[in-house]
Structure formats: structure tokens, C-alpha cells
Design goal:
Protein name: High frequency lysogenization protein HflD
Number of strands: 2
Order of helices and strands: HHHHHHEEHHHH
Helix content: over 70%
Strand order of the largest sheet: 1-2
Number of domains: 1
Oligomer: single chain
Keywords: Membrane, Transmembrane, Transmembrane helix
Radius of gyration: 20 Å
Strand content: 5-15%
Pfam family, one: DsbD_2
Shape: globular
Distance between the termini: 24 Å
Length: 247
């Protein structure tokens, strides 16, 4: 259904094309591999804040995750659109199917590290320069709330943009009459994916954060999210890396 609509995009009116880009982008965010990947980014250390501040934190955190994931996703799609349309580079849809292997590997990695950083403390080191010019590296825990890692959500979005239906959308947009309409369609699709991912992140993040003081329930969400991410990633690798090669 999705691919049939996209393949007929050239027959639609400009207004319908723009509306379609936004709505398809919102729907695109709800794909299982997207939900699994973003879900692993919503865990944080225990908070002593009241319910009001926790709800504010949920909205802020989920919004940032959605915005950065969508920005990364859109960056890749715009790049694909420019290569295919402006530089007239012939990109075969089969390439994006093969790139699903990268998404599968990423989901497995996210699943493992989501559990790993709960079992073991993962530290990052970042440069810090004093006024006298001396430079040293400060270590901090990976889930330290005082240090944000939105760039990870951006990277996940970039990788997701390389594979799957999102790339097909970018290729379909290049069949439109002019570059401006094609780029606008891709950007609206990206905006829709950001909106959809904010909703997804909020729905996942709310129960996670509200139960952060109940260790057993919070661990259930953490391990469940990690397991789902791992299973989806493994199924992608099995289907594309093994089954498709046997056919």
C-alpha cells in the first residue's frame, strides 16, 4: 500500500503531494525498527523530581530525541534526493535493501549496550580546558544527565535514512516535475517524521520515567526494549543477509 502510493506520486496535485509528504512522514516514524532504536535512547538515571518536573523532563527528552533523530533522517534523504535529482546519479532501490544490514547491526548494538550500561558503568572522556591553557579529559558516566548525547540520536537517524522505505520516498520524490517540489516534499516528509518520533518517544518515555524509582518495573522496560531491539536487528540480518542470498 505504502509503496503503491509513493510510486504514483507524480499523478497527484501539488497540494496533495505536500500533504502526503507530511502524513507519510508521521506514519514512517512508527515503523518497528525506528521505535526500537529510539526506545533505547530514553533511559536515564533515577530522578528525585516530583511528578510535574518528571512530565516536563519526558516532554523535553522525547522532543530532543525526536528532533535529532528526524534531523539525521532528513539529512540523509535530502542528500539522496540531491544525488539522484540534481547530480542525476542513478541510484538503484536494491542498494537501500542491502543497507538494511547496517540498520540490523545497529539495532543489535543498541540492544546490547542498553543492557550493558545498566550492568556496568560506561564512562566517556571529554576535553576540558582551564583558563591557564591546561587541557585534560574529564570522565563521566554515559547516562549522566548533566551531559547530553543527542548526537547519538542524530547518528541513528542518519543510518535509518540510508535504508528502508524512507530512501524509497526520496527516490520517488525525484520523479516530480521540478527540484523545488521534490525538495519540499522530502523536507515535509522529514518534518512529519520528527512529529511522529516526538509522539513515539513520549509514549515510550512516559512509563519509563514515571517508574524510574521502581527498580523492578524500570528494569522490565529497559530489558524489554533492549530485547526487542536485538530481536528486530537479528531478524533483519537473517532475512536480508541469509534468506535473500539463498533465493
Amino acid at each position: 500500500m505504502f509503496e503503491e502510493i509513493i510510486s504514483s506520486i507524480g499523478d497527484f496535485t501539488p497540494a496533495l503531494i505536500m500533504g502526503l509528504g507530511l502524513m507519510v512522514g508521521i506514519e514512517h516514524a512508527f515503523e518497528p525498527d525506528h521505535i526500537a532504536a529510539v526506545g533505547t535512547q530514553l533511559f536515564k538515571r533515577k530522578s528525585k523530581n516530583g511528578i510535574k518536573n518528571k512530565l516536563k523532563t519526558v516532554f523535553t527528552k522525547s522532543s530532543l530525541v525526536g528532533i535529532f533523530w528526524g534531523a539525521g533522517h532528513t539529512t540523509t534523504l535530502v542528500a539522496i534526493g540531491f544525488l539522484a535529482y540534481f547530480f542525476t546519479i542513478n541510484i538503484h532501490a536494491e542498494i537501500f535493501s542491502d543497507l538494511e544490514l547496517l540498520v540490523g547491526a545497529m539495532l543489535i548494538f543498541l540492544g546490547i549496550t542498553t543492557i550493558w550500561k545498566r550492568k556496568f558503568k560506561i564512562h566517556h572522556r571529554h576535553p576540558h580546558q582551564h583558563s591557564d591553557g591546561n587541557l585534560h579529559f574529564d570522565a563521566h558516566e554515559h547516562n549522566d544527565d548533566d551531559h547530553k548525547h543527542e548526537h547519538k540520536s542524530y547518528l541513528i537517524g542518519l543510518i535509518h535514512g540510508l535504508a528502508g522505505s524512507g530512501s524509497l520516498v526520496a527516490l520517488a520524490a525525484t520523479t516530480l516535475d521540478n527540484m523545488e517540489m521534490a525538495l519540499t516534499f522530502i523536507l515535509l516528509f522529514g518534518l512529519g517524521s520528527i512529529i511522529g518520533m516526538i509522539v513515539v518517544s513520549s509514549l515510550i518515555g512516559l512509563p519509563i520515567l514515571l517508574t524510574d524509582r521502581v527498580s523492578i518495573i524500570n528494569q522490565f522496560f529497559r530489558y524489554g526494549t533492549a530485547t526487542i531491539s536485538f530481536i528486530i536487528g537479528a531478524s533483519i540480518l537473517f532475512e536480508i543477509g541469509i534468506l535473500n542470498n539463498l533465493q
